[in-house]
Amino acid sequence: MEQNAPILQSTMAEPTHHRKPSSPRIAPAQAPAAREALGWLHTARFLTSASRIEQLPQGDLPEIAFVGRSNAGKSSAINTLAQQRQLAFASKTPGRTQLINLFALGPRDAADAYFADLPGYGYAAVDRGKKLVWQQVMADYLEVRRALMGVVLMVDSRHGFTPLDRQLLDFVAQRVRTGEVKLLVLLTKADKLTKSEAQRAVAAAQEVLGDFVTDDSDIGIAPFSAMRRLGVDDAAETLRAWIASAPARVEFELPPAPPPAEEDPAA
Ligand code: GDP
């Protein structure tokens, strides 16, 4: 890639074959980088839920947010990346669906990143009041959350971007353009598409995302299937590389407390 060229990568998935293979296929060897990235993702564990960003931990750990319409395949993608059956379904338990659910990654005693699973959106039945609350929570989080360094947006590959997906992108657009926040769009359920349909879905997404591309932005698009494990290794490597590129964690130590003020004998 040319230096300084705007980056808008797309990783095409393997073509989907619907016929049975005539002989057992041997799975291709996994690249060491993918294995390492998946090992890291497997450490993900539920940490806490928050209804507003003020309730999230304030620190310097880099954070990656997962966003998407309800039913886009967000939970399946998170579970597949983390190789855990139930991890993101914790976010679907009653009372937690409208919350930001935070996961920690890395060694148990020294987490090195957070994943934030943001509330799914787009339920037709949701009333206006709830939609406004959703808008406020998402806008606050995406515009303000300092630790946010990457967004993974799940878009159903058969439907493409919805108006709410675009609205959500608008909340974070400025930070994506400056490169402060990286963006990966996973075109989910790609197993349901033929190869040419997948190519068209990627082209359509590229068109939408063209608005956000600058010399500084880091934007990727990839077909993804939790069911067939398409695009999983590439997505894992991307997230791992994002975190590796984050500025080193700064530990703040409190300065020693000043000695108690001595009484002024002259007073
Ligand atoms: P969420 O609401 O965005 O968290 O979506 P879920 O992960 O719960 O998935 C919504 C529906 O899509 C469920 O019925 C899943 O079984 C289905 N689904 C998720 N990922 C895939 C996939 O890769 N391929 C197919 N065919 N279906 C999927």
Principal-axes shape call: globular
Could you say which small molecules are bound to this protein?
guanosine-5'-diphosphate
Helix % is 25-40%
Biggest sheet strand line-up: 1-8-7-6-3-5-4-2
Low-confidence stretches: 1-5, 12-18
Q: Domain count, please report it.
A: 1
Protein structure class: alpha/beta
CATH class group: Alpha Beta
CATH-assigned homologous superfamily: P-loop containing nucleotide triphosphate hydrolases
CATH fold group: Rossmann fold
Q: How would a textbook summarize the main sheet?
A: 8 strands, mixed
Task: Determine Rg (CA atoms, Å).
Answer: 21 Å
Beta-strand proportion: 15-25%
Overall pLDDT metric: 86
How many DSSP E strands?
A: 8
Name the helix and strand elements from N-terminus to C-terminus, one letter apiece. Answer: EHEEHEEHEHEHEH
Distance between the termini: 73 Å
What does this structure look like?
The protein has helices spanning 32-41, 74-82, 128-144, 163-177, 195-209, 232-245, and strands at residues 7-10, 45-50, 63-68, 100-105, 113-117, 148-156, 182-188, 218-223. The chain has 267 residues and is an alpha/beta fold. The protein has one domain (33-245): Rossmann fold (3-Layer(aba) Sandwich), CATH 3.40.50. An 8-stranded mixed sheet has the order 1-8-7-6-3-5-4-2, sandwiched between helices. The chain is globular and about 75 Å long. The site of guanosine-5'-diphosphate has 16 residues, from helix 2. Guanosine-5'-diphosphate (GDP) binds next to helix 2.
In short:
With 267 residues, the chain is α/β, with parallel strands linked by helices.
